[in-house]
Amino acid sequence: MSSIRNDHEVARDLATEAGQQLLRLRARHGFEEPEVLRTLGDRTSHEFLFSALGRLRPSDAVLSEEGADDSARLSAERVWIIDPLDGTREYSESGRTDWAVHVALWEREELVAGAVALPAQGSVLSTVDPPWLPEERPSGQRLRITSSRTRPPEFVQRMATQLGAEVIPMGSAGAKICAVLLGMADIYVHAGGQYEWDSAAPVVVAQAAGLHASRVDGTKLAYNRADPSLPDILVCRPELSSTLLASIRDVADRDSTGPHTAG
Ligand SMILES: Nc1ncnc2c1ncn2[C@@H]1O[C@H](COP(=O)(O)O)[C@@H](OP(=O)(O)O)[C@H]1O
Ligand SMILES: [Mg+2]
């Protein structure tokens, strides 16, 4: 009876199933040929998600990291924005659990549903039942910033120094935003390049849970644009956002290679 599932459940169930397929592929293939594993992972997950969405939601458009960009999405009312395998590099490294499957639904200018599967961590976070945020951070605890392990923006270290924060390197935008949702980090910041599919699903779950999510200049994250580039992002507990946006402005002002503001 899949046709009666609501959009939240469709996102959750498809991200979960794609994640299980990726786990099986990883177990079967091993890590001897990482490039082959990465290509197979991207393709297997994309093909599953694309065909399942075509079956379950035939009138909707799809924007996928691994699919051809169909411009029909620009006049569609509903667009599924998917990253079949976020953290592809980490997926191909033995023992790493920081990779994810992202499934989000955009409808008339807003993200409205989504799910992030973290298959190697055995969890799926979704808008069906967004995680519950503790009301306050333990007082006196050092702030923890999670950022890309392979492409951290240069300004992050100076931001951490300014805030007395610790930096936690991690792969996958989805895994990092889930780390904030699960209380393993307080802040995710990125700049220098990314695309809509890297953030849509974790951002809609983060917003449903009450986290702040914006561009690094504080403006809104906008999706289903003609150019899907969305190069920078800040996700954090809401009470930290004004301090962090000021800190980013400050370190960016002192560094011409700092974050480029929204344009
Ligand atoms: N400078 C950049 N330009 C383009 N994409 C970037 C980028 N930095 C990070 N990304 C993308 O953002 C996702 C998370 O990156 P990271 O693990 O470094 O934090 C990855 O998605 P994929 O794994 O889906 O390609 C990565 O490709
Ligand atoms: Mg990605």
TrEMBL record:
Cofactor(s) the protein needs: Mg(2+)
Entries under SUPFAM superfamilies matching the protein: Carbohydrate phosphatase
TM segment ranges: none
Magnesium among keywords: yes
UniProt-listed Pfam families: Inositol_P
UniProt entry keywords in alphabetical sequence: Hydrolase, Magnesium, Metal-binding
GO molecular function, one term: metal ion binding
Residues binding Mg(2+), per UniProt: E65, D83, L85, D86, D198
Keyword Amino-acid biosynthesis applies: no
Catalytic activities: adenosine 3',5'-bisphosphate + H2O = AMP + phosphate
This protein's name: 3'(2'),5-bisphosphonucleoside 3'(2')-phosphohydrolase
